[in-house]
Design a protein that fits this description.
seven-stranded parallel sheet; Rossmann fold; alpha/beta; 13 strands; 2 domains; globular; six-stranded parallel sheet
Length: 397
Amino acid sequence: MKKELLFVIDSLDCAGAEKSLVTLLSLIDHTKYNVDLMLFGHGGALQKLVPSYVNILEPLHYTEFTNMPLKSAVWYSAKKFQYDMLSSRLRYTVEIRRKKYSNAQKARVYWQSASQVIEENPKAYDIAISYAQGIPTFYVAEKVKAAKKFAWVNVSYRLNEEDQEFQKEFYQQYDRIVAVSESTKEILLETFPIFAHKIDVIYDINNPYLITEMANLDKNIYQDGFKGIRILTIGRFAHQKGYDIAIEACKKLKEKGVNFRWYALGKGPLESEIKELILQKGLTEEFKLLGVKSNPYPFIKNADIYVQTSRFEGFGLAIAEARMLNVPVVTTKFDAVFNQMIDQKNGLVVDMNPVAVYEGILRIITNNELKENIVQYLKTEKKGNTEELEKFYQLIG
């Protein structure tokens, strides 16, 4: 008899945890598991890649309500004589506009505002998995019935005292907590030492065969006729990803007279600020925002250098994907970077500032021997980590 399995994640926009989940879903033995997928945001770029045997659940009533224009939401509430969802929506909107919140704080405020109007999942599962911290974790803890519950943590999780106390109550309801790297586990233990007995490490799963196949689907992906050095960065337009560092490094490359273009794949809350910064620095021809792509791998394969300017990462899946496609990497020295990077071997690990990033990129461009040595090393590296799937099966029994 098949086991009933539920995954919950915010959305399937093109980001590390989301790509990891889609890969995991494609590898699960669907002869042994019935798989449901719960999303708080539908229509993400990766949703079309979810295997057909995965049942994507209908949107929650509250998320449908919050997607309505405010005028329509007010009319809907008046027509139904139900104002609880409207009150929750307005309370959250007012609160997050009141001051600047971190992602963890926004998740707490959202749940404090909306948990009472979010319906429970009516099904009973053998296993329920929140595949991201924050709202998915709160939802699975409070709104899902399951024999076993597992929580994934895929960022370096440092919380203030209020959020630690708030989240502790939810994590207590989980059988195991999964960190996506050893460094993520260490930081999680600093935040929640009380849960040391139930934290495991399972790295984000990446399938080199799938990635290589998808990378070969389009050989002329940039379509701009540019003949110089192509630099690529992938990541959400958020403070975490350090686009301000990238843009300053880009400016220095331009001042040096390097013939290059720097492309970025992503979207996010800082998009307008990033566009304004590009304009201010006079880099509209050098720093190109390409939006979100469901298949980023041809962009990676056809880049000369992959650059990651993150301030923190749980693992850094895009770096792993660049390595699988033998593209030299220049990355900042975030917490988890040495889980996969060997400085001077499979790329360069530099300090977290624009000058260091600029100098690292320039070394790859001007030192052909260094670049060739890195590429040759990348070609000999072990590709992918589908053996992590066995750890997943051991976890869920």
